[in-house]
Every structure is written in structure tokens, then in C-alpha cells.
Amino acid sequence: MKTQVAIIGSGPSGLLLGQLLHNAGIDNIIIERVTPEHVLGRIRAGLLEEGSVEMVREAGVSERMDKEGLVHDGFEVALGNGEIRRVDLKKHSGGKQVVVYGQTEITKDFMDARDASDAQTIYEVDNVEIHDPKTDSPYVTFTTKDGKEERIDCDYVAGCDGFHGVSRKTIPENERTEHEKLYNVGWLGMLSDTPPISDELIYGTSDRGFFLCSMRSETRSRYYVDVSMDEKVEDWSDDRFWEELKSRLPESIRGNLVTGPSLEKSIAPLRSFITEPMQYGRLFLVGDAAHIVPPTGAKGLNLASSDVNYLYRIM
Ligand code: FAD
Ligand code: PHB
């Protein structure tokens, strides 16, 4: 196989880059380790900053986001003493707003757009290796789900394969510097088809720890509580989760919480990580492959879009 840009990973970074390049007439192939269903099953980001929203629009995949995304001008912070303060994002950032629209939905929109084009995505690949990134003719080898060995010759490789991918590790250890901080806590997240407790996000502290009340739509909520890293998600029944969340909420809003069965529960470790360089010859690291920030700031996907913005324009 031959293409201009071989993209490793079909998360938000890979799909966004692939679509923008495709629209610009730059041929690319995406290879992905798991099935599309698996990619869509990961519940992650919910909050898009202006820059990401603009990128999705530029890629021509914003129709559903523009229709269904919830535009927020601010968020609330519960201080732990019963007080809740509002942060007016729009006022303090010179008019900026954020859009609440799940990573799952963006990913689905981009997958649909790619399926409707003639751009190629190969799912369920294994043994991915990037070769000769420091030459003018790099190539990628992998095994298909039918066990066939394949090779993509390309001009550039975009490593969009997240924190656990192979792209970063292609850069030899003695030419790579990594900085990492583990916080020893995770966020236990739960998604449910229940109306959100509030119109805006609430980040809060309490005697029992942190909580975040977020949402995906007017009828779907996303809640988080922080837990120690030795907690197992199997030990958290829905009832236990709701009780824990309730015990952390300020009394004034506790009664507004609507509970119901979960659609998904998972624990995400909190980590800060950055690697340098992000370019190694003709290999570029994009998004979580190069840097991770804890979800507290809702920055990860937004930083990934920013990486894509620069790389796409350069290409
Ligand atoms: P990924 O999403 O990790 O995608 C990488 C892809 O590469 C995956 O599909 C993987 O299967 C594939 N892959 C891996 N290895 C290989 C291989 N060897 N070969 C081929 N494919 C491979 N960010 C925000 O901006 N706002 C938020 O509100 C927010 N909330 C979050 C909440 C939680 C609980 C978590 C965990 C994260 C949150 N983030 C948020 C961060 C955001 O989800 C990530 O930054 C984002 O997913 C990064 O996208 P990516 O495409 O770079 O990497
Ligand atoms: C989410 O809705 O999943 C979300 C929102 C804000 C964050 C992190 C996650 O800071």
C-alpha cells in the first residue's frame, strides 16, 4: 500500500487529522488496533473549547454538534462549606464559550464522514511498527485481523495512537525525554440517562473528596468522584456510586439529583505526562501520544485538536 500520510490510531486526533487532510486532497490511511465499536465504547471527553469547535467545523463534520451540542458560558464550583460559586467563563475570557458534546459523538460523526468518503481505515491491526522515520521514505508494517502482513509506504507518519501506542516508543530512548507525574487517584465516572443536576457543570470538593457533575445532553448525565487507585470498578454498584456522589454534594442541591441505572462506569487514573521531541524525522506525535493532562481541566481533547491544527496546516 502507498499513501502520503499513514495515521496510527482512530481516536479524535487521527480522525480529525485524517478528515482535514482528505478534504485538502492529501491521501491518508488510518490504521486502528481495535474495532470501531470499541473506540466508540470509551466514554471520555465532554467539553470542547472554541478552538476544537472551530476545527470540527473546518473539517466539515459539525452539523450534529452545532445542532445538539450544549453551549455553556460558565461553570460552578462547590467549595465544600456549602457555598457554590459561579465562574463566568464568557466574561473572564473575553467572550469565549464551551460546547458540551461527547467525544463518543464527535468520534461517531468523524467515522461516518470517513465512511462516506473514499478514505481508508483499517481496523483491528496488530504488531504495528514504524520504520525509517528519519529517512525520506518511512513505512509502517502491521498484521491485519486475517493474519496478513501489510506494509504502507508513505511520506509522513502521524502517531495519533494515544498514551499506550507504539509511535512514541519508536523514538529511541536516548533521544526522548519524558516527564511524568502520577497523582495516585483515579476518577470513577458514571454515565446515565437521567437529567443533569444543573444546567452548568459543577466541580466540587467535600469531606469525602472531589466530585464533578457533567452532562452529555439535557437527558444524559456524566458524574465523577475521585477514588484511590486500588479501587476496582466491579466493586461499585450503581447504588454505591449514587450514595457516594450524594454524600459529596452540597446539601442545597442534593435533593435535585435524579438517579437511575448506569450506561457505563470506568476508572481513569490521573496523570500528567509529556514527551519531547514531538517530531522525529518524518514521524509526528499528536494528542495523548505526546502529552496527557488530568481530566480536571477538560483539556486533553482540546490540546489534541490544537496539535492537529498545527500539523495539518504544515502538511
Ligand atoms: P486516544 O483517544 O487515546 O486515541 C488513540 C487511538 O489509537 C485509540 O483508538 C487506540 O485504540 C489506538 N491505538 C493505540 N495503539 C495503537 C496501535 N499500536 N496501532 C493502532 N492504533 C492504536 N479532554 C477534553 O478536552 N475535555 C474533556 O472534557 C475530557 N474529559 C476526559 C474525561 C476522562 C475520564 C478521560 C479519561 C479523558 C478526558 N479527556 C478530556 C481527554 C481526552 O479524552 C483525550 O485527550 C483524547 O481521547 C485524546 O485523543 P487521541 O486521539 O490523541 O488519543
Ligand atoms: C466530562 O463531561 O466527561 C468532563 C467534563 C469536564 C471535565 C472532565 C470531564 O473537566
Describe the protein's architecture and organization.
The protein is α+β, with helices and mostly antiparallel strands and 315 residues long. 27% of the residues lie in helices and 34% in strands. The chain has ten helices and 20 strands. It has helices at residues 12-23, 36-41, 50-58, 63-68, 89-92, 103-116, 167-170, 238-248, 251-254, 300-314; strands at residues 5-8, 28-31, 47-48, 70-72, 74-78, 84-88, 98-100, 120-122, 126-131, 139-143, 149-153, 156-159, 177-192, 202-204, 211-217, 220-228, 262-276, 279-280, 283-285, 291-292. Strands 6-5-14-15-16-13-17-20 form an eight-stranded mixed beta sheet. Helix 1 (12-23) runs parallel beside helix 6 and helix 1 runs parallel beside helix 10. The longest helix is centred in the last third of the chain and has 15 residues, at 300-314. The chain is globular and about 65 Å long. The site of flavin-adenine dinucleotide (FAD) has 37 residues, from helix 1, strand 13 and helix 10.
Helices and strands, with pairings:
Layout: E1 5-8, H1 12-23, E2 28-31, H2 36-41, E3 47-48, H3 50-58, H4 63-68, E4 70-72, E5 74-78, E6 84-88, H5 89-92, E7 98-100, H6 103-116, E8 120-122, E9 126-131, E10 139-143, E11 149-153, E12 156-159, H7 167-170, E13 177-192, E14 202-204, E15 211-217, E16 220-228, H8 238-248, H9 251-254, E17 262-276, E18 279-280, E19 283-285, E20 291-292, H10 300-314
Parallel strand pairs: 1-2, 1-12, 2-8, 5-14, 12-19
Antiparallel strand pairs: 3-7, 4-7, 5-6, 9-10, 10-11, 13-16, 13-17, 14-15, 15-16, 17-20, 18-19
Helix pairs in contact: 1-6, 1-10
The structure holds flavin-adenine dinucleotide and P-hydroxybenzoic acid.
